Amino acid sequence: MPHRFSTKSIADAWPFAAPPRRAVFKCGSNLLSTAHGTLDEQRIAALAADVAAIHAAGTQIIIVSSGAVAAGMGDVGEAIRPQQLPRLQGLAAIGQCRLMTAWRESFAPHAMHVAQVLLTRDDLEDRRRYLNFQYTLDALLAMNAIPVINENDTVITEELSVGDNDMLSAITAAKMSADLLVILTDIDGLYTAHPSKDESARLIPVVEEFTAELEALGQGPGSKVGRGGMHTKVAAAKHATHYGVATVIANGRSPGIVREVFSGDFTGTLFLPSVKGRSRGSARGHWISMRRPKGSVVIDDGARRALLENGKSLLPVGVVEVRGTFAHGDTIAIVDAQGTEIARGLASFSSADTDLIKGMKAACIADVLGTEPQYDEIVHRDNLELR
Question: For burial by CB atoms within 10 Å, which of 114, 362, 364, 367 has the most?
Fold first, then answer.
């Protein structure tokens, strides 16, 4: 295996001495579908049995389940995922009923309840609804129920979409301070090349840090029944590990894979939590980080060092360019001179006012704007989250 990837084995790198306290499982559309595109209820039952055993051993479980559109496609006899949004929404509405029935009936023999949770991006971007999401999941876990989360495909548009359930599972894992995210798919993990196109491709067992080269390995199209691909899973792993959540990509079609993962000895890819992992207690920071920015500011090297090395706020003097249109309180991206987004934050000024005061010292703001400002900072440190 090329030296640029970790040579550790999963068993040697496994970060848990005891079973994880809380875990999120993501089950993809391909995994939960038969070769004919219908919902694979036998696989759901097998996964539920293994998850129930893990739960009985003391780990709280949250499931993020794709499959509503695929289930709808099976019910109406459609072989290829359509492109028209109304058609997709209709299939999701048909299939969501079957999907949740399958999960409910699969957990029933284990005397476990399941709870349906449907979300859109608005639910995550609105501060109050974002917090209510956590409160609801906390209540369900306290009742020993299994939350089954899905994006609300019946009403989403591009603007309302989280993007894919891989990222939704990573957001959930970070938000709920999970110890482990397990992304179950129909491939063994992340390879050094596309395994169906390159005979020399090798499975990467452990990822210790993310590089541009590693992230490029995940590029590729989605499936005929799902939206995601390996690139969305790698992006999800990056998000989760950034917030201290160990992440696994493994083949959910492998019998007993759930138990094997929890033993720390399995075939797959383990992404270790970042050594720079952010505080688990920073729910506000996580909320800021996953909101879509309305605009951006480009900063100089001095401001970059102040943010990354010294934990400072972003002052007007460090801003060299304003891009896009945003209002006070909107989320903005903070970009360095090389074009890399290094942080996101809540803007203290509109884009128009920021453009007027960029490059200036705080003492000049009142003279330029004609009024005494409420803030001296473009983004206060309490409203800023590093990427």
Answer: 114
